[in-house]
Amino acid sequence: MELIKQLRDMSGAGMSDCKKALEEADGDVEKAFTILREKGIAKASKRAGRATGQGVVEAYLHTTTPDYPPQVGVLIEVNCETDFVAKSQDFRKLAKELALQVAGFEPRWVTREDVPDEVLVHERNVYQAKAQEEGKPEQIIEKIVEGQVENFLKQNCLMEQAYFREPSHTVQQLIAENISRLQENITVRRFARFNIRES
Asked: Is pLDDT of 9 > 80?
């Protein structure tokens, strides 16, 4: 029972799910937590098509010292299915975490589908020119370019960034875990990041 309670506190999953995961993991709490995570992400994908007409706009202001005005600000709209979940502490905590992610890691788009074609064309051309300049063989230039474009997307798309508190997981996985916990589809609609030092 102690292990089940520990796993429930870690994962937010139900009693029976925790019990099954611990049995599957032979009593190893960390392994059971991983099993619950994987199952939660699988369940979350089934909810992905459901409409999200409720949610919150979360604001975050970053200041380095208490007596100095904020230098960076973020507004982010996070949507869910019902106002009941929108008002919940877990959902508000997720929205705050996402605002912190945007403030610290400066994504430019929510998903890779939001990246304009002309940006991708420009990036490809830059990487290709650099590879040719470095004298890379023609047959591997395409692979190099694709790898660098993929890296560019992971750095600049919020959903694909490493979650700042747990870099082995992406923001998409963080949201999937919350979908599983809250039993509703959750989406990030848009965000804006302001920095007075940027031109």
From this structure: no
